[in-house]
Task: inverse folding
């Protein structure tokens, strides 16, 4: 029998083991939860993997490959089986051919009973087939370029929202740091007021500023949560925890992409498509030659004796040649020419627009660099003033409100620096997009 002290602590030991197992299990569950998204690259990778639009374009590219195979299959011999059992009775007709009900004997001939397999294949059709292949391949190129454009637009929207959320986070961080500094200063000011260095009314004004800063911090937190939620919504993320975003690295400053860029390549592909459409119009007016072959049963009577001797086959060539179609060829030419003029107008406008946007962004980037340098110099001066004001605060040589204004000015310069750097990042990413 166990001693009393072991008997007493046995339930406690079981309880400790149970709690330990629960903690171990919860730790394992926490380890299995995927990490929160914090960087721009993580959001971009998730958006690319979850975007239904990109999946749709990928599926259309695969369908285009199948269309090419279908067009090749259409060029092979096409075999069709047909069957018919049509009776045309003649009821009550006299021997001289008058009266009664039914078709004329030359038309009805008793009926039509057939079971025929026919085959046909166009010949000397290589130019048409080759042009159709090129049209389908150009459609595949358009789909691939459109998918790249969709990926570029997705990256642009995710990046812009990430920078917006990052700026909101910096605003929240700024308010938190200012509130933290004011709270740290609160204890010192209480002691100075109790010592008679400052009046109670001055401290009350400081206290009101602290309460106002608490409200501003809560509002900034809600703004950041909303912008972060919008970013997760665009990327297809399911997590809802409030995390800190990591500052993105600035992209390289690339030169403006020319006519070979993703956005302008579509107009080159449109030019190719219009040229192929014109060739297709010309090919439709060429003579079409096919071989035809059929074999089977065809009879005008249903009696077995007639069906048994009605098997046969036939073969030959079929030629079709357009003669007049109401000037549709010229109208198709005119339609293609109008599409070409529209394509040239769009391409010219986009080229001018991209060049102007690139030059403007370069100017904004240079001005942002100058602004950042100016803010850093002002921030250095403001930091020196805050240090001096902190020393004078202990001796009563500066009012509380004046010191509060110095602190707010210093934190304001810090926030302005963060905003200027974020705007510079936004301009650099926009330049990077124009380089593709």
Result:
């Amino acid at each position: 029998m166990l001693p009393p002290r072991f008997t007493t602590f046995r339930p406690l030991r079981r309880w400790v083991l149970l709690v330990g197992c629960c903690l171990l299990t919860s730790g394992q569950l926490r380890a299995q939860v995927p990490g929160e998204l914090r960087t721009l690259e993580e959001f971009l990778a998730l958006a690319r993997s979850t975007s239904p639009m990109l999946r749709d374009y990928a599926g259309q590219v695969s369908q285009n490959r199948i269309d090419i195979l279908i067009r090749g299959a259409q060029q092979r011999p096409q075999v069709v089986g047909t069957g018919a059992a049509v009776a045309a009775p003649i009821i009550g007709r006299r021997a001289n051919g008058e009266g009664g009900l039914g078709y004329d004997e030359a038309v009805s001939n008793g009926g039509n009973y057939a079971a025929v397999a026919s085959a046909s294949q166009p010949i000397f059709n290589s130019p048409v087939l080759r042009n159709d292949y090129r049209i389908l391949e150009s459609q595949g190129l358009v789909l691939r370029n459109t998918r790249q454009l969709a990926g570029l637009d997705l990256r642009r929207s995710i990046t812009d929202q990430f920078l917006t959320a990052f700026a909101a986070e910096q605003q929240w961080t700024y308010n938190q740091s200012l509130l933290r500094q004011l709270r740290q200063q609160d204890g010192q000011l209480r002691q100075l007021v109790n010592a008679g260095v400052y009046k109670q009314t001055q401290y009350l004004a400081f206290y009101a500023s602290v309460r106002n800063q608490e409200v501003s911090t809560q509002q900034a937190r809600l703004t950041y949560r909303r912008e972060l939620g919008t970013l997760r919504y665009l990327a297809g993320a399911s997590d809802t925890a409030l995390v800190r975003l990591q500052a993105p690295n600035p992209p390289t400053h690339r030169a403006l992409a020319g006519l070979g860029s993703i956005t302008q390549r579509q107009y080159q592909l449109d030019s190719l498509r219009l040229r192929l459409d014109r060739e297709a119009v010309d090919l439709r007016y060429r003579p079409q030659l096919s071989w035809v072959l059929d074999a089977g049963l065809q009879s005008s009577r249903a009696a077995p004796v007639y069906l048994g001797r009605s098997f046969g086959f036939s073969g030959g060539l079929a030629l079709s040649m357009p003669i007049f179609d109401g000037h549709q060829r010229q109208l198709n030419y005119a339609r293609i020419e109008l599409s070409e003029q529209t394509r040239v107008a769009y391409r010219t406008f986009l080229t001018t627009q991209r060049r102007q946007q690139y030059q403007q962004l370069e100017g904004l980037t240079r001005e942002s660099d100058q602004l950042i340098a100016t803010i850093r110099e002002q921030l250095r001066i403001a930091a020196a003033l805050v240090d001096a004001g902190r020393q004078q605060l202990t001796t009563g040589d500066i009012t509380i409100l004046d010191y509060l204004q110095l602190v707010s000015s210093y934190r304001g310069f810090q926030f302005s620096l963060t905003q200027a750097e974020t705007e510079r990042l936004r301009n650099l990413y926009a330049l990077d997009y124009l380089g593709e």
Summary: Strands lie at 78-87, 111-123, 288-299, 311-320. Confidence is low (pLDDT under 50) at residues 1-34. The chain has two domains: 40-75+125-285+326-434, 78-123+288-321. The longest helix spans residues 126-194.
